[in-house]
Each structure stands twice: as structure tokens, then as C-alpha cells.
Amino acid sequence: MQKTIQPKSEHHYHFVTGKLAEHLVRETAQALSKEHGFKYSIGVMPITVAALMTPRWLLRHLDPPTETTHVIVPGYLDCGSDALEEKVQICVVCGPKDCRDLAEVFGGQRLEPALTDYDIQIIAEINHAPRMSRQDVVSRAIRLKADGADVIDFGCDPSNRCLAIGDYIAGIADEGIRVSVDTSDAWEASEAARRGASLVLSVNESNREHAVDWGVEVVVIPDQPSDKKSFEKTIDFLSKQGVPMRLDPILEPIGSGFAASLLRYAETRRDYPEYEMMMGIGNLTELTEVDSAGVNLLLLGICQELAIRSVLTTQVINWARSAVRECDVARRMVYFSINNGVPPKHLLRELVMLRDAKLRPFSLAAIESIATSLKDNHYRVLADDHRLHLLSAGVHLSGEDPFAVFEQLLARSESDNVDASHAFYLGYEMAKATIALQLGKQYDQDQALDWGILTKPEDLHRIKRSSHHRDRRGTEPR
């Protein structure tokens, strides 16, 4: 069990950790030392993940400095701290399992990370942009930038040259937004670059000679995803011509060589460590029928580990309609995770949208206690124990079907206070409670269900409805 100790300036704390979490433990220990005035040291054990330590293993490696007064070990060693203490003859304190909770050992609160830093650029594509009006494209670009996009990609129509492409590009650039162009047409790329585009997607053998004249950075792709030689030839050609570039081996969808394409990204990073890289993650999110948030986080985690510092995404299919916002949250999470050697857990909850990160259940005894303590006729809705509960003074109705619960209410002789407004309110709240039960979400009456980045706060309908009844009747609803 985690202990709490009273820090003193004469204490010296030796924090034990693994290699991955070393940076974060040092950062946390330094902040705590500054706050409490104690001295400290860090014992980085020859193991990657602290959770894999055992008391017996640590006995062979633990060697705290002679001035140590307390050894702080990870929470996974709570069952062996006595043996460790006997060996080192120093007070051994079993700390938290998550090093971000170290402040709790000293009676403080968890140090929440700022999560403001990231180094992955989001390129958000507007697909078939020439089919829209110039104003619609500019408006969409502004919204995407507000969602977190760093660059807006003007997606051309492969079947028709966009003769007005310069006006579109200039319209976006005039808003102070960085813009790229997605085209294989050399004229479109040249005109876009002339009017403000700073990046061209994409270049291979078919158009690489023209890229020399554009004067902007380009994304290099192979002629075919598995054609490594064509990829290398284009890279070599552009390198000799001094054209700035970022490399994209092309991410392929599941069913078309997804795993092999991931390996090509790792190989490209190994073979060309000096070049920036890009991953077109929309190839997976748009072609995989699943909510895109988890897919985006995993792909950005891969990008972060491989130093792929830009991703191309889009929001065409409905299940990926919030992809840019998801990527903005994900890039902050993976940056913190990989740079601090901790899993992307308990950092941000914005991408937990279908279910909730944690539930606060009521026991049946607690529900009964609430029911018997109510003295007014306002209805309370609870969702727990796989059932809906409707409570007020002298009333405790429950069931799995909200229609059945409402029928029980109407069957009661004292239910004459359920007018149309009240019925609508109860139906709305019980619908939310039913959804919460189905998905494993937390239901709190008069509060919006937590949909992560998609959550929209609700007004307090019950309070407004009660005020309406008081104004109309001059009394509380019965």
C-alpha cells in the first residue's frame, strides 16, 4: 500500500525507476525537491519498464547513496518492500505505480502535464476542392486551422485541370494559412507554388523534372508503393538538384499491404535519417470502418517514434469527421508519452469518446438510501446496476426499459404532476441514461454525456423546468 511521508529538508530521497521513465522521474523529483526543500538522487535500474521489476531482482541491483534516508520504489513492489528495507537498512517507501503521482507520497496532488508541446505537423486535405466555390474552400480552410491543422492541402481533381487554382491558393494564403497542393499536374503545381503554396504533394518519376522549377518543398513518393527503386531514384535526383523534400513511402490500407507499408516507413527512416518524412494517414482512417480516434492515435504514435514529423489527413467519411481535432490531441499525447517514457494513459481524456475513462457507480444500498432520504417531489434519474432508477419522495421505480419505468410512474395515483413538459424532460434524461448504460458511460442528471472532444455542455433543464412550474403555479411541482 502506498505510504505518505512528511518531507523534511534533512531527508535524502532515492527514487528508483526504469530507463523509460527516467526523464519524467527526474523532472518530477526536481519539482518536488524545489517545493519541499529535500535532497534526492535517482536510481535508474538496468531495466526498461519499472513495472517489470520484482523485489528479488531489485535486491541485486539496488545501491542507494550513503546519505539516503528514504528509498522510493515503484508501486508494483508493494509486496516486497519489507525485504528491501531489511537489506539496505534504510526506510523503503512504496510509491505510486505511475511516477506522475509521486507528489501524493509527500501529501500533495498529482502533477498534471501541460501537454502543450508537439512536433508533428497536421496537413488537412480539402478533397476535390475545385468543385467548391473559392469562398467555401477558404471558409473550410479557416475551420480546419481552428481545429488544429498547420497546413491546408488543396486537393485537386485528377480528371480536370483547375484553371483557377491560383485564385484558390491565394485566397487561403491571404488568410495567413500555410497551404499545400495535392496534384500530379505539373502546371497546377507550378501555378499553386507561384500563388503561395509552400508544399507540393506528390512527386515521383512522372513529374520530378518539373519540381526543380517550382521553388518549393515537395513530398516524394514511389511510382508504386512497393517500388523501392523508383523511390530511391527520385530522392537521388531531387537531392542533386537541391530540391527540399519530405519522404512518404505511402501507407496502404488493411487488405492491401498495411503491415508491409509500415515496415517501409521504418526502413525509409533508417536509410534517410537526414530527411523529413510524411505519412498519409487518411489512407487508413478513410478506408477502415471504425471510429477514427484510436486509429489516429496509434498512427501518430508510430510517427512520433520514427520521427515522421508530418501527417496528411482528411475528413470525408463520416466516421472520420473529427480527424483533425483527434490528431491535434493525439500528437500532444504521443509527444509527452515518448519523450517521458510513459504510456499515453491518464494524460488527456478527449479521445475517449465512445465510453468513459472511469465510472462512479452507486451501490444498491446507496440508491436505496437516496430514495428514502428524499423529501420533495422532484424526480432524480440514476443509471446503475444495468438499470434505470427514478426517484422522488416516496417513489423508487426501476427497470431496464425507460418506457416501462415511465408507465410505472403514470400508474401511480400521485403522478398528476407529470405534465407534457415534465414528461418530455424525463424522457430526455432517461434516454441519456439508457445510452450511458449501453455504452458504459457515466450518467449525471442534467449534465451532458462525456463524448471527449465532441462534448457540448447542456443547460440545467431540470432547474429551468422547475422555475417554469413555480412561475406558472406559484408553487413547487407536486
UniProtKB/TrEMBL annotation:
Transmembrane segments: none
Pfam family, one: PterinBD-DUF4346
InterPro entries: Dihydropteroate_synth-like_sf (IPR011005), DUF6513 (IPR045406), Pterin-binding_dom (IPR000489), PterinBD-DUF4346 (IPR025595)
Record-level GO BP terms: pteridine-containing compound metabolic process
Annotated ranges, domain Pterin-binding: 103-335
Lineage top rank: taxon: Bacteria
UniProt protein name: Pterin-binding domain-containing protein
